[in-house]
Hints:
Helix content: 10-25%
Strand order of the largest sheet: 1-2-3-7-4
Structural class: alpha+beta
Distance between the termini: 32 Å
Largest sheet: 5 strands, antiparallel
Number of helices: 7
Number of strands: 18
Amino acid sequence: MSHNSFGHLFRVTTWGESHGPALGCVVDGCPPGLRLTEAMIQHWLDRRRPGTSRFVTQRQEPDAVKILSGVFEDESTGGPITTGTPISLLIENTDQRSKDYTAIRDAYRPGHADFTYQAKYGVRDYRGGGRSSARETAARVAAGAVARVVLGDAIVIRAAVIQIGRRAIDRSRWDWAQTEANPFWSPDADAAALWETDLDAARKAGSSLGAIIEVHAEGVPAGWGAPLYGKLDAEIAAGLMSINAVKGVEIGDGFAAACLSGEDNADEMRRGADGRPVFLSNHAGGILGGLATGQTIIARLAIKPTSSILTPRQTVTAAGEETDIQTKGRHDPCVGIRGAPVAEAMVACALADAHLRHRGQVG
Length: 363
């Protein structure tokens, strides 16, 4: 009933708190015989790591991952390979500043999960939000690295930030290479330059901004997914919606599809050179009837502004007293920036699970 696990055949359980000694995950269901090293996981964790620019939290965490189980190496394996048993991954916390939160230990921060955790459990870890902190997403990224190994190189998953605050990218300037060339994961270099000004202003004011992230998964074979209650889009949406601070998810055209006519929304098909159907558009986002079409899977997620801000906000204490609160400490002026690698990881985990379930049913 604790609901700290997700997935079915590829199943991930995360554990740990923001200011605890460590956090991590256990990945169960990974097939045996796959090459897996700490360096392969570290590559993805480094993309999410805090303190990499002035636009993210200045908490300095190396996020160095350790593989504790599920991998074996000797002369017969030719390198570290998965054994098919649970893979336990550990990431130590090294730069906690719990004293930053002493002043708010008895007050509920607006926009945070302080009140709801207290209401459910009767106790809460006020140090950085404890389990509800975005720090937990490091474990998801580590699990996503394992999922990518399960999926193989033929499936490419990448995410881009397409909007920060009210300013969106110009899609005519979309360049995937740019997402690795600026600190915002922006595919539009011009938008990245403007976001720099916007976030500097928000940070100076002690405020924050929200963001929208778009994830693409290319190379997913047609047929993955399961109707009716295991739809691939539902599984992806659930994984993305479970990310801290996410308040909305859409697949393909999403809510914009309500503005289209039936003629405009239908993804027409023609015969391809190999005799297979070729789609002429992708309003469905690569999924029909809960099953992959073979097109690029496209999902978007909306991330709210970081709730930890310096501007005083009205609240109440655990004793029911009215007060004002401002949250000090080291926080992301836009938590959505580091959300791109997390979104990729959750899509990877959902697809790895769909892959194993599909293989289990149809071979």
